[in-house]
Amino acid sequence: MKNKIVTAFAPATVANVGVGFDILGFALSGLGETASVEKIENSKQVHINPIKGYPEISIDPLKNTATAGLVRLIREKNLAFGFKVKLKKEIPVGSGLGGSSTSAVASLIAANSFLKVKLTRSEILDYALTGEEVASGARHADNIAPCIEGGLVLVPTNSTIPPIGIKTPPSLRCVILLPELSIHTKEARQILASAVPLSTMIQQTFNLAGFILGCQNADFDLIRLSLKDVVIEPQRSHLVPHFLQIQAAAMAAGALGCSLSGSGPALFAFARNQKSAEEILKKMKKAALHFELPLRGTWISPIAKKGAFILREKR
Fold first, then answer.
1. Model pLDDT, residue 244
2. Residues ≥6 apart with Cβ < 8 Å to 292
3. Residues in Cβ contact with 311 at an 8 Å cutoff, skipping those fewer than 6 apart
4. How far apart are CA 306 and CA 315, in angstroms?
5. What is the helix (H) or strand (E) element at residue 246, kind and residue range?
6. 5-165+304-314, what's its fold?
7. What is the arithmetic mean of pLDDT over 104-126?
8. What is the mean pLDDT of residues 166-195?
9. What whole-number distance in Å separates Cα of residue 157 and Cα of residue 162?
10. CATH fold of 167-302
11. C-alpha 211: how far from its chain's center?
């Protein structure tokens, strides 16, 4: 009899959300990746198939975001078996849409189904962070947490506090524009200053608080007033050619805010509703075309209420 194969889906995410560096993130609807995991009896090894379309991604289990957490899981839980992983990547590497997190989370969600004592959600997050650390060099959960939980999530830096869901207006839409570029998180973090002026910190603190309050109260005017990153975006915007012009086009079209998704190169913009999102995307694409910036893809998405889940099981 063939071994059971469990396939899990994990949604793409937008991290930082402009004003919440390393502590805010939300899940996108529809866009994401799958991991198919098979249990390997009488082995404590983890294997991963070469990833179609991505020959540059290591299949060393300690160097792959999908498997690093599984290696640690086997060791710490003293499992008597291993795993074989097959990834189907839909999110380009270095896109700023949480591709490393989706791989880590999807493989753990699938592998968890083979455990007699299931991992808690906090344990899944912790093991997934091992994969995130491989990709970015840091254990930040602003992609991981919304990928697991769904929705817009406030991610405490203290690991003893669980992620906190933030209510968002039902009509809110996210516009994604992905240039034909690749920016690696680890490199994008290295260019950041280690300190910011006190006045800048105060402004960013207000913006973060105002944005969260605006989301909770469905106050679109407050969201638009607050969704302005004065700390990270000024240091990274040069990584995406003509970022400021595309951002200006989005705001002129009625966006509630527009910034980098994660470390970029993807840009995200918030819209009041679907109709507004379509107009914003139209103007952002027009600006990119004007400046001859090639695009890899565009999307309009609500904030996904559901995080990673088991897609199917088969033998």
1. 98
2. none
3. 7, 8, 9, 34
4. 26
5. helix 243-252
6. Ribosomal Protein S5; domain 2 (3.30.230)
7. 96
8. 94
9. 10
10. Alpha-Beta Plaits (3.30.70)
11. 19
Q: What is the largest CA-CA distance in the chain?
A: 66
Give CA–CA dist 47/3, Å, rounded.
Answer: 15
Residue 131 to residue 310: CA distance in whole angstroms:
19
* Residue predicted with more confidence, 188 or 301: 301
Give 15's pLDDT tier (boundaries 50, 70, 90): very high
Tokens of 21: 């560096």
Token representation of residue 141: 């959960």
DSSP assigned state of 3: P
Residue spans per domain, the chain: 5-165+304-314, 167-302
Is pLDDT at 1 greater than 60 in this prediction? no
Q: Is 269 helix (H, G, I), strand (E, B) or coil?
A: strand
Residue whose entry in the numeric block shows the structure tokens 């893809």: 297
| Residue 221, burial from CB neighbour count under 10 angstroms (0-12, 13-18, 19+) | exposed
Helix or strand holding residue 152 (H, E):
strand 152-154
Helix/strand/coil for 249: helix
Who's near 142: CB < 8 A, 6+ residues apart?
13, 15, 16, 20, 21, 22, 23, 24, 25, 153, 155
Closest CA to 312 of 28, 34, 12, 30: 34
Query: Are the CB atoms for 137 and 248 separated by under 8 Å?
Result: no
Number of Cβ atoms within 10 Å of the Cβ of 194: 4
